[in-house]
Amino acid sequence: DGVTEVLAHRSDNLRDKFIEVPCSEDYDSHKRFEGCTPRKCGRGVTDAVITREEAERIRRIAERGLSLGGSDGGASILDLHSGALSLGKHFVNLYRYFGDKIQDIFTEEDFALYRDVRQRIQHRIAQVFGISSSAMYLTKPTFFSRMNSTGAKTTHDEYWHPHVDKVTYGSFDYTSLLYLSDYSEDFGGGRFVFMDADSNKTVEPRAGRVSFFTSGSENLHRVEKVQWGTRFAITISFTCDPEHGIGNPLL
């Protein structure tokens, strides 16, 4: 993997760390939205937006939802917006599949916490990149992930390939990850790796840590394979294009 530099150790308690990188040309092939489309690009890490206690509460939402299904392979997802839930080698719609039973699994408080956390992350991204928070829209896919060391059964389980979010999902302009478990305590491997030409920059997950970045090729990245334990996170994605915006999940 060449030279690896750790941007954020699990033991760090970072108020704000931001590294600016030159923007790629990916944004030029999409409609630009003044006051939102990235003009300043980069990546940031903060442990000061979400508390560990909140991260634990959010993780319990993920655990309860994922207990209804789960992939046969190592990567399971739960999307509260669309209802997509990994089940075996496929996905089901949680809301259709479980119907009114959903009320026994999630509460209004769960969804209120989810909304609140998402808004705080959105405000922090807007602040750091000098854009208006109201010009950003939540976009899909925004989802919980649970990863373990089980071998992949389908391509959906193969989460470790390098990719660019803007290329994979054209709507993405800003990507964020809220980690819900601790590297080296809850799981091994599974670090987040920015792949730069000269070196790799890694982020070690820690419950409550938010990693965020502009979604273009300036932030090519991958996740290391999880070697042991279970890694929980939530990916929260933002677009500048109102046509690609999605609403908050509703119970």
Automatic annotation (TrEMBL):
Keyword line: Dioxygenase, Iron, Metal-binding, Oxidoreductase
Tree of life domain: Eukaryota
PROSITE patterns: FE2OG_OXY (PS51471)
Signal peptide extent: none
Cofactor: L-ascorbate
Record's GO cellular component terms: membrane
Domain Fe2OG dioxygenase: start-end pairs: 140-242
MF terms (GO), sorted A to Z: dioxygenase activity; iron ion binding; L-ascorbic acid binding; oxidoreductase activity, acting on paired donors, with incorporation or reduction of molecular oxygen
InterPro entries assigned to the protein according to its UniProt record, in alphabetical order: OGFOD3, Oxoglu/Fe-dep_dioxygenase_dom, Pro_4_hyd_alph, Pro_4_hyd_alph_FE2OG_OXY
Listed name of the protein: OGFD3 protein
Organism: Myiagra hebetior
